[in-house]
Amino acid sequence: MKATLLAIVSLVLGSAIGYWLTQREFAHDVLPLEITPAASFPGRKIGPKVAVINGERFDFGTMDRDGHLSHVFEIRNDGDEPLTLTKGKTTCKCTLSELDRNSLAPGEKALVTLEWDAKTSDTSFEQSAEINTNDPRRPTIYLSIVGRVLDTVRLERNDVHFHDILTSDAPTAVLNIYAFRNPDLKVEKVDFNNAAIKDHFSVSFAPLPAEEVAKAPDAKGGLKMTIAIKPGLPIGSFEQGIHITTNQNEQTALTVNVIGNVVSDILLAGPNVVADRLLVSLGTRSREEGVKHTVYLLVKGPHRDETQLKIESYEPTVEFAARLGEPLRDNPKIVRWPLTIEIPPGATPVSHLSEGAYGQIRLSTTHPAAKELTIKVRYGIKE
After folding, report:
1. Does the pTM of the predicted model rise above 0.85?
2. Contact at 8 Å (CB) between 50 and 84?
3. Is 28 a domain residue?
4. Is position 19 within any domain?
5. Do both 258 and 329 map to the same domain?
6. Alpha carbons 272 and 278: distance in angstroms, whole number
7. Residue 93 has what pLDDT?
8. Within this chain, do residues 282 and 378 fall inside the same structural domain, yes or no?
9. Which domain holds residue 216?
10. What is the pLDDT at residue 33?
């Protein structure tokens, strides 16, 4: 009797433990269930149902900057009632150029053509367009295009700066030009936009070494451009634009902006002076007060003691004058030449306040590296 009871208790206890272990092991498993779609039930309607067969997002890979591409999206009605399609909004660089059908019966397809221009300075590119539908589940679908924009040809940088160079200097600057489509890059034409100083500039090109090409992601080739400035640029600031046309950018030239200033052992200093422009800015004065304003030409360097200055001419020649004083040698390293600008009281009202209308004082010197100087004077006379 006891043995039978013990067997029954063991059987019940073993079953309970087995059930508990089974529940613990499979508690988080989801068993497959066969569900009958709603459409298979008699009388159950789906309504219009939009589907983009070839995907709502198209990756075009890479394209040229300022280039034009298009892509066709294919839309199908997977419902059991007519599907209507209308054009919606597009982003600024994208055009929904064509929607070949506005109404689709169940199972029918429509083609949507999306066009875009890569007019951007960025490398990554993404644009989109909307299609409005009568599908209550998806009243609007968003078609997008993504990819990367490459320059066919690109400069390493667009600006080159030369600061405080001497008139006797012959400085150079180097920059790289990268080609992203075709490694065979050749320069076909070089133009300078500042004709007055173009003879002081020269450019040369050499193939870009492979290790330099590798510094620009996706570049396939390139050229190393050397910009050389010849001695003799006039003292003051300068700007020169260099336009480069290659066999791969014939429609749009690359432009390098060269900016700098030339200094010498002869400097302009004093009140109301813009030294790097050799400009004296007097502003607007009353005709009754007149003007008597003194600035200084500082001569330094090994030729300071023997350098002589002379005013050759000045403009305007009426009611405007300039004169040099005796050189001052109160500093052992600098010789100071006072330059006095005079406008008499009662002068006729006039404006020399804009670039191109400034008064000018032209000087000659015996300095070997600065044979001449032109000082500009900005002023106006009012009643």
Report:
1. no
2. no
3. no
4. no
5. no
6. 11
7. 65
8. yes
9. 153-263
10. 38
Strand duo 370-382 + 350-352: pairing: antiparallel
Distance (Å, whole) CA 353 – CA 275: 17
Tens-place pLDDT, residues 228-280: 999 888 877 899 999 999 998 877 889 999 999 888 789 899 999 998 889 99
Residues 6+ away with beta carbon under 8 Å from 17: none
Closest alpha carbon to 224 in 210, 242, 239, 243: 210
**166 domain residue, yes or no:** yes
Asked whether residue 91 falls in the same domain as residue 143, the answer is: yes
Beta sheet of 221-229, edge-to-edge order: 153-155, 172-179, 221-229, 201-207
User: Which residues make Cβ contacts (< 8 Å) with residue 287, sequence separation at least 6?
Assistant: 345, 346, 347, 348, 349, 381, 382, 383
Query: For the segment 109-160, what is each residue's pLDDT rounded down to a tens digit?
Result: 999 998 888 887 788 889 889 999 999 999 999 999 999 887 889 999 999 9
Last residue of a domain, one of 150, 184, 206: 150
Which of 150, 182, 203 represents a domain boundary (last residue)? 150
Are 243 and 225 contacting, i.e. CB atoms less than 8 angstroms apart? no
> Cα(373)–Cα(382) distance, rounded to whole angstroms?
29
Residue 197 within a domain: yes
| φ, ψ at 299 (rounded to 5°) | -110, 120
